[in-house]
Every structure is written in structure tokens, then in C-alpha cells.
Amino acid sequence: MLAQRPPMGWNTWNTFGPNINEQLIRESTDAFVDLGLNKAGYEYIVIDDCWSEYNRDPVTDRIVPHHEKFPNGMKAVADYVHSKGLKFGMYSCDGVRTCADYPGSFDHEFLDAQTFADFGVDFLKYDNCYKPTTSDGPNLYHRMGMALRATGREILFSACNWGTDDVWSWIRSAGAHMYRSTGDIVDTPESYRNIAKSQMDKLCYSAPGCFNDIDMLTVGMYGSGNVGGDVFNPDKKSNANTEADYRSQFALWCMYSAPLRKPARR
Predict the structure, then answer these.
(1) Per-residue b/e over 197-231, b at no fewer than 16 CB within 10 Å?
(2) Which of these, 46, 97, 99, 129, is most buried using a 10 Å CB contact count?
(3) What pLDDT score was predicted for residue 231?
(4) pTM greater than the 0.85 cutoff
(5) Which domains does the chain have, with CATH numbers?
(6) pLDDT the model gives residue 263
(7) Any bridge partners for residue 9, and if so which?
(8) Residue 181, exposed/middle/buried by CB under 10 A (0-12, 13-18, 19+)?
(9) b/e burial code for range 82-110 (CB count within 10 A of at least 16 → b)
(10) pLDDT tier for residue 204 given thresholds of 50, 70 and 90
């Protein structure tokens, strides 16, 4: 069974945003191994939004990697990540476009799922932007869940619908292995504290096979990167996390992502 424990790894978005390419992924993979993060249980290298061309291939209708960012194709990137003993993840969206306005998977779920499987993907983050107003959110996640299973490849399904539609109450039935239950994090104390407080009544939904995802950690960013500082209030210079804040954030993420366990009897 996939996701017997909360999946752990690294995603490009918080640090690099749209500024990604093949060399960056290779160097990040090498650093991951050199730092020993794989030995600590972190196993996924995940490419977020902005990896593809702006339009689908006019002949095959498939999403294709950006020819300048990934000149050797995505299969070559996946193979490199796998050669280091790690697993490879990618990004798509349930709408017609992704959040950064690249091709989304709406009405292409089965084609895109097979494309990801052909690349060698082990993890799919599935976002929630630009879906038609008449579409049913839960149905879109069920469709991609079915499409991923139909490929015959084990692909961890990370549903990222931002906590809408009471996602915690139905997402396990869609085949998802983790689900975003909050809005986006930024690298401020207020952001991580508000996220943690919002999940106090959601602990009971997280269990082996499908875990609560309260967005990516910002530990150690110290105001740098794509979500560094208060991106919604750029004039607030003093609103920065300290090392103590980061320790608190890490502890809270462990608590809210993992299922509650009874204390062992002695």
C-alpha cells in the first residue's frame, strides 16, 4: 500500500517558483543525497508548476516538457532521480490551465495520467485552478484518481484542492494518498500558526493510506525564495520566522500530518 506513512520529500515551488530546469533538478537531487536526506526518510523530488510548454502538442494532444527548460525530456529527468535511489514527482491541475497558466488536465485526465506514467512519475501533485464553474470538484479528483490507477503504475496521488468542498470527508474515496486541507503557506509566523489552528478539528481524518497535507514547510528559508517573507504584505519587514518558529512549525506539521497514536503500554 502506498503512503503507509506520511510521504516526505522536496518540492521546487517554495524556493524556485517558475525558475526550474533540468540542471536544477539534477543538482537538487545530488544535494538531497549528499545531505543524507534520503536516509532520513525523505524520498520524493517533485517538480511543481511551469515545467511544460504553454500549449499541448497539436498532433498528440499531450502535455510536453518545455524544450528549453528540459531539453532531454522528462523521462531523462525521472531516470536520473531514480538512479539516485529517489522517487520522482510532477504537477498538474484539475482545471483547463494550471495556476501559472500552463495546460491543465481537465477533460484530459486519462491521457495525462498515462503521459506521467510514461515519464516514470511516482508522485502527482494535482492543483485546483481554472476549473470550469459548472464542474464538480470532487468528481474531478475522482476522475484523476481513476486515471492514475488505470495506468498500472504506482503513482502517489497528492490532491491539492486547498481544503475546499470539505475535502477531508471524501478524498480517500478518490484514491488520493494525501490531501491539501489549507490555503497556501508563506514564510511568516502568522501563516504557519493560522494554518495549524485551522486544522485542530481535522486530526481524525489523517490515517495510513491518506494523510493530511497542510502545505509545504518553509523551515530554514529565512525570508528567501518564492514564498519568502510576507508576500501579501511586502512592507512588513519584521514579520520573519526565527529558528524557534521553525522548530515549532516542524513539530506542528508532524502532529497534523501523521495519525494519532495511542501511547505504548509498558
Answers:
(1) eebeebeebbeeebbbbbbbbbbebeeebbbbbbe
(2) 46
(3) 52
(4) yes
(5) 9-257 (3.20.20.70)
(6) 44
(7) 44
(8) buried
(9) eeeebbbbbbbbbbbebbbebbbbbebbb
(10) confident
Kindly report the backbone phi and psi dihedral angles of residue 132, in degrees, each rounded to the nearest multiple of 5, phi listed first: -55, 145
Q: At 222, which amino acid appears?
A: Y
Active-site residue 213, yes or no? no
Residue 204: all three cell numbers together: 481524525
Identify whether 184 is a catalytic site residue.
yes
Residue-level pLDDT at 236: 53
pLDDT score of 162 more than 60:
yes
The one catalytic residue among 48, 122, 127, 213: 127
Between CA 224 and CA 16 the distance in angstroms is: 10
194, 225 Cβ separation under 8 angstroms? no
Q: What would the pLDDT profile of 28-58 be if each residue is shown by its tens digit?
A: 999 999 999 999 999 999 999 999 999 999 9
